Amino acid sequence: MKRLASTVVLLCLALAAPAAASTFIHMSPRELIAESAAVVVGEVLTINSFWDASGQIIETEALVRVHEAVIGNSPTVAVVRTFGGTVGGYTIEAHGFPEFRPGERVLLFLSDERGGFARVVGYRLGQYRIGHDRNGAEVAIPTFEADAALVVAPGARSAAPARPYRLDEFKTLLRAEAARTARHAN
Questions:
Q1: What's the alpha-carbon Rg for the chain, to the nearest Å?
Q2: DSSP state, 125?
Q3: How far apart are CA 37 and CA 74, in angstroms?
Q4: Average pLDDT over residues 158-165
Q5: Half-sphere exposure of 63 (CA within 13 A, CB side)
Q6: What sign results for the dihedral spanned by CA atoms 174, 176, 179, 185?
Q7: Residue-level pLDDT at 148
Q8: Which are the contacts of 39, defined by CB distance < 8 A and separation ≥ 6?
Q9: Where does 37-185 have alpha helices with state H?
Q10: How far apart are CA 134 and CA 30, in angstroms?
Q11: CA 160 to CA 38: how far, in whole Å?
Q12: What angle do CA 99, 178, 155 make, to 5 degrees?
């Protein structure tokens, strides 16, 4: 009965959301880590959009030079794919999915590489841009846009938006959480 009530609430939320919006289940840093093969800090070198093999879906591939593997192992250059992009005058906007710009610095929660590429775990929930605060300290800034997609928490409640973190503190938090998760898995 509880599952039925949650399903009904999710359906109501989906119907109330704007037609262009996507709906995602909230993932905490702990949940993102549990689903990730690696968490990396790097710089987007290039992006390339193309039609998939079916010719019906546009995907974008970003080459990310990995400056630091915060958790797990990663190649020097990670190949990261996501949905959406522009090819030959056709644009597919995939709300809530990662977007990349050459030259930007990012922190990414990455899946296992399969087929020569990884995906960002949790879609944009697993993507942070690296910027600076007014004192010059590096900050990991969430890329998730609440107006373009809806994030729901368990029980079909709207989830609180992700917050920016000082990069050094965020990396420490992520490493501690990964160590705690590893201890509980054994």
A1: 17
A2: G
A3: 9
A4: 75
A5: 5
A6: negative
A7: 52
A8: 32, 33, 69, 70, 71, 72, 107, 108, 109, 110, 174, 178
A9: 167-185
A10: 28
A11: 25
A12: 70
Average the pLDDT over 29-50 and give the result.
96
Q: Can you tell me the distance from the alpha carbon of 104 to that of 62, in angstroms, rounded to the nearest whole number?
A: 11
Residue 63 CA to residue 100 CA, distance in Å, equals 10
Identify the residue whose tokens are 């109501």. 12
163 vs 139 pLDDT, higher one = 139
Extract the tokens encoding 103. 């030259």
The total of other beta-carbon atoms located within 10 Å of residue 49's CB is 18
Q: Report d(CA 22, CA 131) in Å as an integer.
A: 26
Token pair in block for residue 91: 């644009």
Asked if 142 contacts 161 with a C-beta cutoff of 8 angstroms, the reply is yes
Count Cβ atoms below 10 Å from residue 42 Cβ, excluding itself: 25
Say if residues 140 and 164 touch (Cβ distance below 8 Å).
yes
Distance between CA atoms of 141 and 158, rounded to whole angstroms? 20
The candidate with the shortest Cα–Cα distance to 62, out of 160, 129, 154, 155, is: 129
pLDDT band at 8 (very low <50, low <70, confident <90, very high): very low
**In whole angstroms, what is the distance from residue 95 CA to residue 59 CA?**
13
The confidence score (pLDDT) of residue 97 equals 92
Please tell me the distance from the alpha carbon of residue 179 to that of residue 170, in angstroms, as a whole number.
14
Cross-strand partners of 127: 108
